[in-house]
Specification:
mainly alpha, globular, 139 residues
Length: 139
């Protein structure tokens, strides 16, 4: 399995968490239990467990800052109008570019999340994601 597939898994898990309004994990143990339960339906890329845990705990911990960054980049657009799929992609991409330790190089993160948007979003999602993440990468 490649890191791209691990990102897709993280996106699917995170989208599920947002959709269910279920950010119930506060500890690594709670996160691992949630991942274990989720992986009953989608294969967990166990070889990328440190990356998966790091990204999910960071996006959870820095959620308010991440959302604030995304909202500031939306021109004439309310965050409430952004689909949950696109929101999930933007939050994870922003986290990787600005908050993850170690940070993912912006060009890699943007390319990866544009591909996720092409797979899971609507026909305009990838361009929207590309534009917002590009702005965030230049902050």
């Amino acid at each position: 399995m490649k890191i791209s597939e691990a990102r897709q898994f993280v996106f699917q898990f995170y989208y599920h968490e947002i959709f269910e309004k279920n950010f119930s994990y506060q500890t690594k143990e709670e996160l691992n239990l949630a991942l274990e339960n989720f992986s009953k339906s989608i294969s967990y890329p166990i070889e990328y467990k440190p990356y998966v845990e790091n990204l999910l705990t960071t996006v959870n911990k820095e959620f308010k800052k991440i959302e604030e960054l995304v909202v500031k980049q939306l021109e004439n657009w309310s965050i409430d109008r952004v689909t949950l799929i696109d929101k999930s992609i933007l939050y994870l991409g922003t986290c990787e570019i600005q908050f993850l330790n170690p940070k993912t190089p912006a060009n890699i993160a943007i390319n990866e999340y544009v591909e996720i948007a092409k797979t899971f979003g609507n026909e305009k999602s990838h361009a929207f994601i590309n534009g917002i993440l590009d702005k965030i990468s230049k902050l």
